[in-house]
Specification:
GTP Cyclohydrolase I, domain 2, GTP Cyclohydrolase I, Chain A, domain 1, 35% helix, 9 strands, five-stranded mixed beta sheet, two-stranded antiparallel ribbon, single chain, alpha+beta
Length: 228
């Protein structure tokens, strides 16, 4: 809704600023528009995870009662619930919510989709970007649903190889397109901050089906994701 920060002067037709807005750059309304983010967590799950995290902190030699750590177990419990909330999401339902009939049979590509996931071996993050393309077979899906499907599978304990396949298969099963292609490029903290400690390593995985198994189509896809 459009709101004016002043009143109109009948004699001049010009708008004069309200005193509050002129002085402070803001104005109080009787019915202000407010934004509030609300994250929901299961209380019992949060409590149980927090108890275990507190025990781990103690086993590592820290004092869980000191000021900086008092709320850490609860924070970690909530963080892990958020980072794995993909288990509670249905990729098929997400895709089915925005499918449209369309006579379009050229490649559709959504690239540079941010990916944040947890390696299931060490529960450390891996992150990077995904490139997802498909060739429609009479039906297209709302573009925002593709990144949402990426998140459904990324927000779980994962390995990059399986994540790549799951994204491809979900789109294939629901849309029944002529082909699907997925490439993920990611950095893994499990081999950057521990283990091999290789700071500049990037892991690339791919999964193709249908028309993308043909060299020419695959080459076009790779050219597009590598273009500026």
């Amino acid at each position: 809704m459009s709101r004016k920060h002043g009143t109109s002067d009948p004699s001049t037709g010009k708008e004069t600023l309200d005193a509050d807005f002129a002085a402070n750059g803001s104005i109080d309304y009787d019915d202000p528009i407010q934004y509030q983010r609300q994250d929901l967590y299961r209380e019992e799950t949060t409590r149980e995870i927090a108890d275990h995290v507190a025990e781990i902190i103690g086993l590592l030699g820290e004092d869980v009662e000191r000021e900086g750590l008092v709320k850490t177990p609860e924070r970690v419990a909530k963080a892990y619930q958020f980072l794995t909330h993909g288990y509670g999401l249905d990729p098929e339902a997400i895709l089915m919510s925005a499918i449209f009939d369309e006579d379009y049979s050229e490649m559709i590509l959504v690239k540079d989709i941010e990916v944040y996931s947890l390696c299931e071996h060490h529960m450390l993050p891996f992150f990077g970007k995904a490139h997802v393309a498909y060739i429609p077979n009479g039906k297209i899906v709302g573009l925002s649903k593709i990144p949402r499907v990426v998140d459904v599978f990324a927000r779980r304990l994962q390995v990059q190889e399986r994540l790549t396949l799951q994204i491809r298969d979900a789109i294939s099963e629901v849309l029944r397109p002529l082909g699907v292609a997925v490439v993920i490029e990611a950095a893994h903290l499990c081999m950057m901050m521990r283990g091999a400690e290789k700071q500049n390593s990037i892991t690339t995985t791919s999964a193709m089906s249908g028309e993308f198994m043909k060299p020419a189509t695959r080459a076009e896809f790779m050219r597009l994701i590598n273009s500026g």
